[in-house]
Structure formats: structure tokens, C-alpha cells
Amino acid sequence: MRTALVFASLFCFSTRAFAAADTFEIKKTDGTAAVGGKATASVTITAKRGWHLNQEAPLSLKLAPVPGVVVDKPQLGRADLAASSETAARFDVVLTLSEPGKKVIEAEAGFVLCQKDSCRPVKEKLTLAAEATAPPAAPATKASGASKKQKKKS
Asked: Cα(60)–Cα(6) distance, rounded to whole angstroms?
């Protein structure tokens, strides 16, 4: 009996994962910029296999930036979409990193998928990556030029 319950629960969990893979896909691109500069990462949601994104339902991307990362807007909605169609939607996330290195930003996408006869809301957790490179070195000033100016004053 116990073994049957374990297999039944595994089947339920694997069916859910398979259904998500069959109905939509989320693709991400990382953002890269110099420290203090603006980087842009993106999240694209694509409906698959006869499903489409409900154009009247809310579509959102909530971001939880880590220390050292500032996002221009921590919650994006339908009005913030960079691209949108019946089967795909893309958010561009503008962020600034205050220190060099790679950072991971936790996020949650919310949207509604529909078929001809039914719709279902989806909440999907994901992570975005961003990397800040060290700022370019400031041009070196010539020490000899400064000492010549001091000598002229004497």
C-alpha cells in the first residue's frame, strides 16, 4: 500500500512538471554592464501546444533584488512589456549593480494560459543573472607634469 502511494505521488508531481513543459516555456537572458552602469536582463514567456496567453488577464514579473542590485522597477506588469503577442510576452528588466561580480535575482512570473475551452493561472518562480564588470581604470596622470608646474612657481 505504501509503495503504491509513493508511486502515485511521484506520478502526480511528474505529470505537473510535464504539463508545465508542454504548455509554456520561460527563457531568460542575463544582463551585463560595468559597475554603476545599467544592465538589461529579459524574461520571455511563450505558450506552447495550442495554449495562448490571456490578453485580458494580469501578466506580471515580481523581482526580489539582492544587496548590491537595484532594479528600476521591482514589479512589472502588462504595461511594462517590451514585446507581446497572443503566444509570447517579454519583460526587459533594467538593473544597476554596485559591485563587480555575478548576482542572482529571484523573481516570480504570473500569467494566465488559455485554450479554447479553459484557462489556468500560472505562477512560476525563476532566477535572473546579472554581472557587473569592474569600471574602466581612470587615465593615469603624469607625475612629471605636476612636478614641472611646481618648479615653475618657485
From this structure: 35
